[in-house]
Write a structure and sequence with these properties.
Blueprint: E1 4-15, E2 27-36, E3 39-45, E4 53-59, E5 64-67, E6 69-71, H1 83-90, H2 95-100, H3 105-114, H4 117-132, E7 136-142, H5 149-165, E8 169-177, H6 188-205, E9 211-216, H7 223-235, E10 241-244, H8 252-258, E11 263-266, H9 272-281, E12 284-287, H10 289-294, H11 303-308, E13 313-315, H12 329-340, H13 344-350, H14 353-358, E14 376-379, H15 386-389, E15 398-401, E16 404-405
Parallel strand pairs: 1-4, 1-5, 6-7, 7-8, 8-9, 9-10, 10-11, 11-12, 12-13
Antiparallel strand pairs: 1-2, 2-3, 5-14, 14-15, 15-16
Helix pairs in contact: 4-5, 5-6, 6-7, 8-9, 12-13
Bound molecules: 3-[(4S)-2,5-dioxoimidazolidin-4-yl]propanoic acid (DI6) and fe (iii) ion.
Amino acid sequence: MTERCDLLITNVNAATMDPSIVGAYGAVEDAAVAVTGGKIVWLGPRRELPDCTPDEVIDGEGQWLTPGLIDCHTHLVYGGHRAGEFARRLGGESYEEVARSGGGIISTVRATRAASAEQLYRLSEPRLHALMSEGVTTVEIKSGYGLDLDTELKQLRTARRLAQHNPVNIVTSCLAAHALPPEYDGRPDEYIDLICEQILPAVAREQLADAVDMFCETIGFSVDQCQRVIDAAKKLDLPVKVHAEQLARTGATAMAAKAGALSVDHIEYISDADVLAMAESGTVAVLLPGAFYTLHETQVPPVEKLRGAGVCMALSTDLNPGSCPIASLRLMMNMGCNLFGLTPAEALAGVTRSAARALGLCCSRGVLRPGLRADMVLWPMDTPDLLAYEVGALKPAQIFLGGRDVTAG
Ligand code: DI6
Ligand code: FE
């Protein structure tokens, strides 16, 4: 603890989410938190606070402070919308049927290719703002609605530009292996060549992606094709994550765990052996209840088995125009509990500590602890249980990004 600090928050209860602090939320009640240089430098019971001279003091008024929320799986940069397809699905057509008849991901690809960089930015920013208004301070954004070199680059540059103009951390993933573009119809292996030989190297040259993702599904790419993408990502020193086993068991999770993937996302159809493989490799399970809900799925991910095996479970929106057009991470916390059986404390861990781990960022954020970034949210509530329970009315009182107050309005 230095003698002076930039910011001191006192009279606050801290849901640190630090697993080394006993109790559901790693709670430190009647706490004080000191911040300098964008990082937490001291956190503990207020009565133990050493002498210090803060530049600014905030009275937390007995409210609760949590880590900034982290949405670790979004596709929020896209053109157009799919309201027409929503109506078709409500009329009884399945997601796969719509996709196979030229709708689905490919219809968003057409709209995203047609949008100018400026249009894409303007369409995407309100989606980002919706997340930020809920206390989200880190957002992952994927490409994958371009499926050609220029449009994949356009999407990823848009994500980087959103980060330059908004007080939020953005990390990006290249999801060129999302669907087969129409110009490669019947030639999926040649499209995988394009990804491995041209798209990923160009993305890496411009440092546009922090990771590489892929859609390993019967309506996406096979395990063998995805393995080639993983090998190409590894050559470029990029970590991988996999959309796995949302619609059927494919073997994607076993492949991802073997490759040391950061996360496998969805995983409704994984087997007991897959759960053990994840526990061994430390691969995070990213649960996406909004997609499950939107697609009226019935197969839930094996949460009890994941919990029993000690697999780290993150929660995310999957914000995308088809299977989850819902820009609310708080609603996902509620759905994680109601639909998947998480506890409220697991839901908060899922959008903080575990989400940070799914992005390979657990050394810098997701927990309130000295040495970590001061991305924090002050909530007007008397227990963190409310965060997963209530939807809509409970809003952050203050949002801090690297210790800076970035509360909107
Ligand atoms: N994430 C995805 O990328 C796909 N499903 C999912 O959960 C498809 C998104 C889309 O329909 O556009
Ligand atoms: Fe997704």
